[in-house]
Description:
152 residues, alpha+beta, five-stranded antiparallel β-sheet, 3 helices, 31% strand, elongated
Amino acid sequence: MTSIASIAERFAAVAPACDYWSIRVVRQRSEHLSVTRGVTDPVHVGDDLGVMVTVVTGGALGYGATSDITPAGLARAGQDAAAWAKRVAGRMVAVPPVAHHAPVHFDHEATAAQPWNAVSRADKITRLRDLAKSLTGDERIATWQAGLSYTD
């Protein structure tokens, strides 16, 4: 597993020459379970990781983004951000001040009352099947579905 600190270190090694840069790393994990007309649908599991690069250079600001967290991918995002900053130089309404702050590190971890993984996938699907079955009380209902999604 790649840590946010290691991504920041990788970017620092390939960052473009500029007055200031920052990166924002976002990782989103998700799972979606559903039952349609009594049939369990395929489970959808996602794991997305991406980086947004901000560069201030020549009195202008530019952005670049990537999901390629290799040194080459991070370098491209930094070059893209620097190129955008050069394109908008002299055209910005408000030139951002270059702040020289100590690095900020923030990992947000919220504690759930009942963690997602504390309940088995089989138990979640059983509950969805029961819920979906309860939706069929009228013969005019032609299709029904119960679903559950989780995003971290």
